Amino acid sequence: MSCSNKRIIMSLLEKAHSLLRTYRIRPKKSLGQNFMIEPAFFSRMAESVSLCKDDTVLDAGAGLGFLTRFLASKCRAVVAVEADQAIEGLLCEQLADLSNVTIVSGNVLKRVFCFNKVVSVPPYSISSRLLLWLFSRRFDSAAFIFQREFADRLLAPVGNEEYGSLTVITSYCARVEILDVVPRSAFYPRPRVSSVIVSLKPFETKPFVLKDETSFISLVQSMFTQRNRKVRNAILPHLRSTCSISKEAAVKKAESLPFHDKRVRDLTPESFGVLANALVD
To answer: Which CATH number does 3-202 carry?
Structure first.
């Protein structure tokens, strides 16, 4: 790391201390408030989404606004969302000079925004829900800083302990790549977990055909609650709730389904697609 970058980091760290002191804010562990103070990663994330002057970017979990200000200098508009009301007030004052920044207070998962790219360091506690929320919308590309353990789940191989519903859903929706390791020293306060930059690019052509994406997601989420059971058993609660049939009818239907004798954890994403399509018929 160059001396100039070290000076910038120190200035952002000092700025973070100053802002928190001035606004009498103490970072909340419950909200995952670890603020990014390493500007080199701002550039890395922007480059990964090919950020340009025509883009409208979502910054989910804007924090102290350091990333937001950087993004505002690179694109047409930034929608900065912050759930903590005290920090939202800080953002409104600190970013008042930026006419292309819209600050939104509240839960990003319960709002509707117009954007085409996402560059964000979200609270790690909402990572799964944030991705599912994002996959239900159109976007060109996204770059996140996520907990390393979470990122590994997105890329876990079939049968692996980390392989789960989010792995399957993500593999259908987007190409995932881990771009860089982010050291704990890049945050204030320093988190206890390891972090990485993750790139997401939606598939132009999906890897397999689904008759109903909503039904697919519902099926996958339901079955992974019983990941070690065979399909014919794990699928019964889903069949009874979605088809409104008796237990006996559900058992009969389950026995007729593809892959009924395989364990849930051993099904590929494509196999889940075949199974979901069979239920739509």
So the answer is: 3.40.50.150
